[in-house]
Amino acid sequence: MHLKSLTLRGFKSFASTTNLVFEPGITCVVGPNGSGKSNVVDALAWVMGEQGAKSLRGGKMEDVIFAGTSGRAPLGRAEVVLTIDNSDGALPIDFTEVTISRTMFRTGGSEYAINGSPARLLDVQDLLSDSGIGREMHVIVGQGQLDSILQATPEIRRGFIEEAAGVLKHRKRKEKAQRKLEATATNLNRLSDLLGEIRRQLKPLSRQAEVARKAAVVQADLRDARARLLADDLVAASASLASDLEAEAELKQRRLRLEADLVQAREAEQAAEVAARDALPELTAAQETWYALAGLAERVASTASIAGERLRNAGNVGTEDRPGRDPEAIEREAAEVRRAEEALQAEVSEKADALAAATAARTAAEAAHAEAEKQYAAQQRAIADRREGLARLAGEVNTLRSRAEAAGAEIERLTAARAEADARAETARHQFANLETRLAGLSAGESGLDAAYEVAEAEVETATAALEQLRSAERAAAAERGAAAARAEALALGLERRDGSAALLAAGDRLDGLLGSVAALISVPAGAEVAVATALGAAADAVAVTGLDAAVAAFDHLKAEDLGRAGLLLGGEVAPDTASWPELPGGATYAAHMVECAATLRPAIERLLFKVAVVDDLDQGRALVAKLPEVTAVTRDGDLLSAWYAAGGSSAKPSLLEVQVALDEANQRLGAAQAETERLRFAIAEAEHVLAAARQSSDAALARLHESDAEHAALAEEAGEANQVVRSAQAEAGRLAAAAQNAAAARDQALANLGELESRLELASAQTEVSEADPTERDHCADRARASRSAEMDARLALRTVEERARALAGRAESLTRAAEAERAARAKAAARREQLRREAEVAGAVQVAAEWLADRISASREAADAERTRAQERRNEAEAALTAARQRGRELARSFESLVDTVHADELARAQQQMKIDSIAEKALTELGLEPETLVAEYGPEVPVPVLVDADGRPLGEDDPRPDPVPYVRAEQEKRLRAAERDLAVLGKVNPLALEEFDALSERHTFLAEQLTDLRKTRDDLTDIIADVDARVQEVFATAYADVEKAFEESFARLFPGGEGRLVLTEPGEWLTTGVEVEARPPGKKVKRLSLLSGGERSLVAVAFLVALFKARPSPFYILDEVEAALDDTNLGRLLEIYEELRENSQLLVITHQKRTMEIADALYGVTMRSDGVSAVISQRLRED
After folding, report:
1. Pure H helices in 810-945
2. Pairing of strands 77-85, 26-30
3. CA-CA distance, 14 to 78, in Å (whole number)?
4. Helix (H) or strand (E) holding 3
5. What's the sign of the alpha-carbon dihedral 954, 956, 957, 960?
6. Nearest to 1068 by CA among 1082, 1079, 1080, 1078
7. 3-class DSSP state for residue 211?
8. How far apart (Å, rounded) are the C-alpha atoms in residues 795 and 955?
9. Higher pLDDT residue, 952 or 941?
């Protein structure tokens, strides 16, 4: 078996399809750094199932896809195809050539294929595992992995040996079996818990099922009684509805007669309304005539009053003129205002001319000021240009002077830095010497750390074992507590009463004198419960009361509520004289002396147990009765013997007293289990604290051990850094000396240039005289411009003042002229008004005479109209009286009719209610009983006999019991039967109607789970056997492989380190399943064995020796080595190449190298180069021909 070819498409730097053909022997892959050689190794590891992105030198798995370059776009997937020659059948597959391919998409998906068929990662690993290629990939040694082999833990080194020996498939089988075993254990625990829970549920559920059976009989009795009562109600309601329908016909006849009388009354009322309506127009006409005459009289009186008023107004008007100003005086004032207005207009024209002259002067002054400002600015710019030339030359001089000073400062800095570098080199030399001394003495302090760590680990194991024992005890205590709680709950349910005693105990808050259950009020020694219960008989289940009155009250309550019967134990009676009882022989004790109770119950208990003795067995009881005939003997098993009566046998049902004692014991067990659980919890907490302290001590010891190793490595690293500091400081001193010479040369050149520029600056300063520009003319023009603007403003203000005065007088003359004309018009209007009033006075006098004559005529007409109105009103009143009488008759008939209608409606409502009651009964029967009304009456009517469902004691009749004859229906008996059934159902309490089905289903599930539990236990045993077989096989294979690797390591170490000593050491000798592998190496001429004290080259050689030992002890078909000889010198390289030659005989080697000597032994060469576009390319050369 060997690798035949490798094809890469889009994998890392191999963007294009690249095919590498391998042949048996040694194949070297060479090329410059960064060309992509190691990507070939990554491709081989990746296609064989590598899952770690860091192992492939990436951050995430998608990094294996070609990411693109500046000249080539990134690809969307990477694919690697590996072809293996399987002609020798090393791989467990029926092909002489096996092709494994893996494709990674940028979306994150990954695909495997074997010979073109899709496969899983597990399939690829299983295919390669028998060839020694496992998850650790020990056949692939990448860059930097040599040192990681030595830094690995002993367990990881063990993994290398296991992988080379082919233990991986056994490990996988064991891991798979362990996972199944863990799952089986989990399922077993869950199933055990589930079965325990189901068992706990079965007990109360069985009681619920029994209650459900009883409830079914009670509910049947309840349904029958309820159906018969509903049928009786339905028959009675139907009969009442029929009688109401017969009375409805008579009411209809009375209604018809009243309707006819009411029609006649309404016709008479309509005739009276017509007569009243006919009399209304005559009355209205008479009233309108009277009202019209009254209005006319008022208008005539008003007209006479107005005429008199006008006569008085005409007499009051005088002949004097209207007061006001004289129109001629107003016209003279208007002429004066016009003359003043003309004078103001002339002044406005004069002021406007002055403003125009001031504006022209201001414009000329501003133009002169702008010209002067321009000339002054031109002079300033010319002076600035001359100054700029001098400043530029002075700046160049300052620049050269600064440069020369900076060069001098740089020379001083470089000189100081050189001295500092020399001092730093000297300090580093001393530090290196000190570190070598500390490294030599550090190994002496590590002797006690290993022992301390072992002691701490032993303490951790001891604390862990103690904690596990406490947890097991805590689980057992918790199980005991659960069992005690379940037993107490079941016993408490058994104490619940179902007869009249339970009803009395429930009514304890309403009845005086109830003390409680006798079983709860007395206590007996352990083992005597059955004997005392037998002696007490029915009294053991009785209820204790204070006395006779309380007993009578209790019986009254039971009878009133029909709650059944109950036995009562009365307290307070005088106790019998127990001193006169005969003395008992040994082994016998009076039962009364064994009972502990309250003082009020002691007399009753002693009477019940009168001369009753408790003995151990029947023989002792027979002897006692024969000796003392008046004494009754009762055994501890419950057998009773006396001279006149005996009772005994066996009974599966315990008495209430026994149940009460058992309940007390269960509660005591529950309390003890609870206390034990709490104690164990505290102990577990303390053990966890001890374990944490032990682990902390172990971690501290391990940390100190690691700290010692880290300190040793840190000191070695510091020594290397100190040596590097010496070399770098010396190199820096040389660089600083050269820089100081360059700075001196630059300073000399700057000083020479500075002298020349300073001479030019002195000459330019002496030849150039710079004067300032004269601003006198500019300022003079500015003053003139300001004065012109002020004069213009004054002229403008004067013009505006005169214009305001002119506007104020502009309309005054016209206003005065209009006022004179208005005064003349008003005087003419007053004269015309006086003439009009005189003429109106003449007309008013004539009107007043005519109005007095007309008023007399209207008064006579009003008297005649008033008489006619009175006669019409009388006729109207007579018609209204007749209409009122007719309406009263109609109302009386309407009230009678409404009363009759109300009666009819009330009857109809009663019938509707009766019908609703019938419908309600029918709906109730259909809803609650599922019976139609006809079926209800036919099967449960009052005439149907009532079947008997229970016997005389109230127990339900069974299928085999004789059926009594039915009894006639009596409503009172059925109501009593209904109440009794409801009471019995209430006494049963909450009934689970599905309890029977649930009990059957849960029982069936319990049986099924019990079978599953048996199967799981068998599976657990089988898996345990498999794991034991695998462990035995792993021990055998690993022990053989370790012996071979140990021997091969000693040989390879001796070849690579002539005169040295190296060996492999087991961390736990004899423990082949868990032991790790340590490497001890002592190069020739050295005493150290710790790997951390070796140099880099020595560490690489030790790692190579370990790998070569693996390769020789358990050869693999091929090995891939990536620059493993990079850190070796020429001598050690030659030794390694000899080993390569030996490995070539049995295995194929693919070597990534830069060493020429390694290339010389190769059978074929592949050259890898990186093109300018960032893509790797491959060329090949065969060096040897077969």
Report:
1. 812-924, 933-940
2. unpaired
3. 9
4. strand 2-9
5. negative
6. 1078
7. helix
8. 138
9. 941
Q: From CA 99, how far away is CA 81, in angstroms rounded?
A: 7
CB burial of residue 925 (10 Å; 0-12, 13-18, 19+):
buried
Nearest partner of 597 among 522, 524, 658, 516, judged by Cα: 522
Cα–Cα distance measured from residue 228 to residue 235, given in angstroms and rounded to the nearest whole number = 11
- Amino acid at site 71: G
User: Phi, psi (5° rounding) for residue 831?
Assistant: -65, -40
User: What stretches of 610-655 show up as alpha helix (H) in DSSP?
Assistant: 618-627
DSSP 946: B
For residues 132 and 138, give the distance between their C-alpha atoms in angstroms, rounded to a whole number. Answer: 9
On whether the CB atoms of residues 42 and 28 are closer than 8 A, the answer is: no
**How do strand 1148-1152 and strand 26-30 relate by DSSP bridges?**
parallel
Which of 66, 154, 37 has its CA nearest to residue 1179? 37
**Residue 228's pLDDT is what?**
80
> What is the DSSP track for 659-715?
HHHHHHHHHHHHHHHHHHHHHHHHHHHHHHHHHHHHHHHHHHHHHHHHHHHHHHHHH
Q: Count CB-CB contacts under 10 A for residue 322.
A: 11
In the structure, what pLDDT confidence band is assigned to residue 769 with cuts at 50, 70 and 90? very low
Rounded CA separation 719/273 (Å): 142
Between the alpha carbon of residue 495 and those of residues 489, 528, 995, 1123, the distances in Å are: 10, 19, 21, 87
Task: Determine the Cα–Cα distance for residues 360 and 348; give it in Å rounded to an integer.
Answer: 19
Record the tokens describing residue 209, joined without a space.
């099922």
- Percent of the chain having pLDDT more than 90? 3
| Cβ-contact 1139, 1105 below 8 angstroms | no
The CA-CA-CA angle for residues 1177, 1181, 1185, to 5°, reads 155
* Tokens of residue 1105, six digits: 């020796």
| Collapsed DSSP state (helix, strand, coil) of residue 139 | coil
| Contact present, 397 and 754 (Cβ < 8 Å) | yes
> Which of 1167, 1164, 873, 1171 is CA-nearest to residue 25?
1164
Q: Is 537 in contact with 612 (CB distance < 8 Å)?
A: no
Return mean pLDDT, the chain: 77
Token output for 283: 């009355």
571 within 8 A of 607, measured Cβ to Cβ: no
The single residue listed with the structure tokens 């002696």 is 535
Residue 716: band (very low, low, confident or very high) from pLDDT cuts 50, 70, 90: low
The radius of gyration of the chain's CA atoms, rounded to the nearest angstrom, is 67
Q: Which tokens sit at 1127?
A: 């850190």
Contact call for residues 1053 and 1105 (beta carbons, < 8 A): yes
Which residues are CB-contacts of 1046 (< 8 A; sequence separation ≥ 6)? 1063, 1064, 1109
pLDDT at 916 over 90: no
- Spatial separation of the C-alpha atoms in residues 523 and 529, rounded to whole Å: 9
Taking a C-beta distance cutoff of 8 angstroms, is the pair 190, 1046 a contact? no
Pairwise pLDDT comparison (1010 vs 846), residue with the higher score: 1010
Q: What's the farthest any 2 CA atoms get from each other in the chain? A: 178
Of the chain, the end-to-end C-alpha distance in Å amounts to 18
The structure tokens listed for 729 are 């400081």
Residues 840 and 833: their CA atoms lie apart, in Å, by 11
Question: What is the identity of the amino acid at 381?
Answer: R
CB distance 637 to 530 below 8 Å: yes
The residues near 517 (Cβ < 8 Å, ≥ 6 apart) are 495, 497, 501, 505, 542, 543, 544, 656, 660
User: Kindly report the CA angle at 1148 between 1146 and 1152, in degrees rounded to 5?
Assistant: 140
Alpha carbon 332 to chain centroid, angstroms: 106
* CB neighbour list of residue 1039: distance below 8 Å, 6 or more residues apart: 1072
Strand order in the sheet with 543-545: 514-517, 543-545, 568-570
pLDDT digits (tens, 9 = 90+) for 325-354: 666 777 777 777 777 777 777 777 887 888
